[in-house]
Design goal:
The complex is a heterodimer. In chain A, about 40% of the residues lie in helices and about 20% in strands. By secondary structure, chain A is an alpha/beta fold. Chain A has one domain (about 20-250): Thiamin diphosphate (ThDP)-binding fold, Pyr/PP domains (Rossmann fold, 3-Layer(aba) Sandwich), CATH 3.40.50.970. In chain A, the strands form two sheets. Chain A has a seven-stranded mixed beta sheet, with helices on both faces. A two-stranded antiparallel sheet of chain A has the order 5-6. In chain A, β7, α9 and β8 (about 215-220) form a beta-alpha-beta unit. In chain B, about 45% of the residues lie in helices and about 20% in strands. Chain B contains 13 helices and 15 strands. In chain B, β2, α2 and β3 (about 50-55) form a beta-alpha-beta unit. In chain B, α1 (about 10-20) crosses α2, α3 (about 60-70) packs parallel to α4 and α10 packs across α13 (about 345-360). The longest helix of chain B has 21 residues, at about 225-245. The chains are: A alpha/beta, B alpha/beta. The interface of A and B includes residues 87, 88 and 90 of A. Chain A: One of its GO terms (molecular function) is oxidoreductase activity, acting on the aldehyde or oxo group of donors, iron-sulfur protein as acceptor. Chain A: InterPro entries: 2-oxoacid:Fd_oxidoreductase, THDP-binding, TPP_enzyme_TPP-bd. Chain A: This is 2-oxoglutarate ferredoxin oxidoreductase subunit beta. Chain A: One of its GO terms (biological process) is cellular respiration.
Chain lengths: ~250, ~350
């Protein structure tokens, strides 16, 4: 018997969005990707833009985002998603185009593509998942790794002498005149995820108003890479990442 | 207005792109091909055909814009010269892996490294043997005139869409920079989204409508069996291309006792060598591969029965000659003469090399 047949029609208060597929996610339990995927899927459904949305997935854990969001997808080479999105949006201006990139993808190997897409003011939504680590390759240091943080390639902790400083890409991007909207959120509580959804919606809406690029960073956890339980990872994120990457709307024009 | 013009090879690439209904060009300046994007910017086709022209921040970004545009089923292209094409190799490998159609133009200059800005044919290996990672082939067209720069834009797109394999025009600084009379192609409108679906099928990322499954363009397969299936499919396509799309030209080859093998600008120089040799009663001819992949292997093999020997002339240290030797397979001598680093060989020095290496041996 189908679940919907059990629940009386008037009693159904929540349903999984149809923009999410039924595929079992490969993400580790506690990973932020799943929550953000669902937030995007819900926004797409609420806005009724499933038929007009093209996603560009990165290289990294979320390379398989196309398995879970039931829309058309392009899978980019490492760091190049903003270049793909640039061409896609310019060739099909009537579509909603968004990129989904991790911190290694966007802030390291794809830094040039990200900054120049923003500087040109491409009418796209860029989503930046920042968990301070390379997840898929086994927990190596990223540009966003915090000072002192231990990773597979900074086993005794990141140092300024060896690796320079933690990169705040969002702060670099915010002053660019091509960017109309910059916000930094998390997805660790229901309230935080609701705020994130509002930011994503705004980003999608902006992309149809020729206002320029919308850039939404999500401070995230990688509890496997950080070698913590999901609960401890969320606590560590709040204590250590939020002070370095403060949440909030940075720019809204 | 006449469609016969006196134009540079590079300018003609731009004119031909607009005329054949190209949807998007993404490039980055590099000598000796910058006139391609300059001409496009001057023509401003976004005001007429709606074609998108964008100067990217790098060659890497440009080829990935091509990837994005190709994912949408659009006719998209880029152009560059040797060092820039090296940067594009990552994107080219992805385009091949994802089976996307597009057109890439390489107006070659001398290398390695930053090299020179003078003409060269030293990217034959990179282009024909696969400059990026993985088992893949490009459809490679080698023009030897400004007219062919025009013709191969449309042909390149046609073949690329037919097989969903990227096409490359492998030109050089000589063809790109020289001016010649050219008959421009008739104008074709850009295709609508409906026409693209009707002609090519509904595979592109144009938005998942209710009546079809999601379209995903990716070159990723974590399972070895899936990746091997992709490789086998690609190899089957390359075999089909090898069987159906070989293009070549012969010059005074019917009764030839010796045969020159040359592509692109070298073939223009070699035709002069053939003419002067004929004046001296020497039965010299030439075969010019027009497609470098697929290579005219069978045709060259056939000539091995007729001629006493071959000489391949290239503006490199000897690259295509390896494919000529594979075709001839030891049946007859295959000599090589080349200049490189931006030096263009003269018809006379090719004659001298023929005398020394082939005629009097």
């Amino acid at each position: 018997m189908d679940v919907k047949e059990i629940i009386a029609k008037g009693d159904l208060v929540y349903e999984k969005t149809k923009v999410l597929t039924d595929k079992e996610m490969h993400y580790c339990p506690g990973c932020t990707h799943g929550t953000v995927h669902k937030a995007i899927a819900e926004v797409i459904e609420e806005m009724g833009i499933q038929e007009k949305t093209i996603g560009i997935s990165p290289v990294g854990c979320s390379v398989f985002a196309y398995e879970y969001l039931h829309i058309d997808w392009q899978q980019a080479a490492h760091g190049r998603a903003p270049a793909l999105a640039t061409a896609t949006k310019r060739l099909m201006p009537e579509k909603y185009v968004f990129t989904y990139q991790g911190d290694g993808d966007i802030a390291s190997i794809g830094c040039a593509e990200a900054i120049h897409a923003c500087n040109r003011g491409e009418n796209i939504l860029m989503i930046f998942i920042n968990n301070g680590i390379y997840g898929m390759t086994g927990g190596q240091m990223a540009p966003t790794t915090l000072d002192g943080m231990k990773t597979a390639t900074s086993p005794t902790g990141r140092t300024v002498e060896q690796n320079g400083y933690t990169l705040d890409l969002t702060k670099m991007i915010a002053p660019l005149p091509g960017v109309c909207y910059v916000a930094r959120h998390s997805a660790d509580t229901a309230a935080a995820t609701r705020k994130l959804k509002r930011a994503l919606k705004k980003g999608f809406e902006n992309s149809m108003k020729n206002k320029g690029t919308s850039f939404v960073e999500v401070i995230s956890t990688c509890n496997s890479g950080w070698k913590m339980s999901p609960v401890a990872a969320n606590e560590w994120m709040r204590e250590n990442m939020f002070p370095v990457f403060p949440l909030g709307t940075i720019k809204d024009e | 207005m006449s469609d016969v013009k006196l134009l540079k090879g590079n300018e003609v690439i731009a004119e031909a792109a607009i005329r054949c209904g190209c949807d998007g060009y993404f490039g980055y300046p590099i000598t000796p091909q910058s006139e391609v994007m300059e001409t496009l910017m001057e023509r401003a086709p976004w005001n007429t055909t709606g074609m998108v022209v964008l100067q990217a921040e790098s060659e890497v970004a440009a080829i990935n814009m091509v990837y994005g545009g190709a994912c949408c089923g659009k006719k998209v292209m880029t152009s560059s010269s040797s060092p820039g094409v090296s940067l594009k190799q990552e994107g080219i490998s992805y385009l091949c892996g994802a089976e996307l159609p597009c057109l890439i133009v390489n107006v070659q200059r001398g290398g390695p490294g930053l090299g020179t800005i003078q003409p060269s044919q030293a990217d034959y290996f990179q282009t024909v043997k696969g400059g990026g990672h993985g088992d893949y082939k490009l459809i490679v067209l080698a023009p030897n005139s400004v007219q062919e720069m025009n013709d191969f834009v449309d042909l390149g797109f046609e073949l690329s869409f037919k097989y969903r394999v990227p096409a490359m025009i492998l030109s050089d600084g000589m063809i790109g920079q020289m001016m010649e009379k050219v008959t421009l192609s008739p104008k074709k409108p850009r295709r609508t989204e409906e026409e693209i679906i009707k002609e090519d099928g509904d595979w592109a990322t144009t938005g998942k409508t209710a009546d079809r499954e999601q379209n995903v363009i990716t070159s990723l397969a974590l399972k070895a069996e899936e990746q091997e299936a992709t490789n086998l499919r690609l190899q089957a396509k390359y075999k089909e291309i090898q069987e159906n799309e070989v293009r070549y030209e012969t010059y005074k080859a019917d009764d030839a006792e010796y045969l020159l093998v040359a592509f692109g600008s070298c073939s223009r120089i070699c035709s002069k060598t053939v003419d002067t040799a004929r004046e001296d009663g020497i039965k010299l001819g030439m075969i010019r591969p027009i497609t470098l992949f697929p290579f005219p292997t069978k045709q060259i093999k056939e000539f091995a029965k007729q001629v006493k020997g071959f000489m391949t002339v290239e503006m490199n240290a000897g690259q295509m000659v390896e494919d000529v030797r594979l075709a001839v397979n030891g049946e007859k001598p295959v000599e090589f003469y080349g200049r490189f680093g931006g030096i263009i060989p003269s018809p006379e020095e090719i004659r001298v090399a023929l005398e020394k290496q082939l005629f009097n041996k």
